[in-house]
Design goal:
By secondary structure, the chain is an alpha+beta fold. Helix content is 41%, strand content 30%.
Length: 90
């Protein structure tokens, strides 16, 4: 399922127009992005949570040259599904 298909499915499920569903989708993504940028954790009960994790610096190897390369520390957004949601698939 791609973004367009998701928006159409949301519109059909909620009885919205595709335009309204697209607006809701964009608002959802924007709110989550802004919260993560502000350092907040977003928890959706029964679904999962979004947060930003710190990734430590490490040494990697360039596969072409076999040269060691220092990979700097960074932050990355992660999404973790809740146990109740995971159980729906097992």
């Amino acid at each position: 399922m791609n973004k367009g298909e998701l928006i159409k499915a949301m519109a059909d499920k909620a009885g919205f127009t595709n335009k309204d569903a697209a607006t809701a989708y964009e608002a959802f993504v924007d709110v989550i992005t802004e919260a993560l940028k502000a350092g907040e954790k977003v928890q959706l009960a029964g679904f999962g949570s979004f947060e930003v994790k710190d990734v430590a610096a490490k040494t990697g190897i360039n596969p072409k040259t076999q040269e060691k390369v220092e990979i700097p520390a960074c932050k990355k957004p992660v999404m973790k599904f809740g146990n109740a949601y995971k159980e729906l698939f097992n």
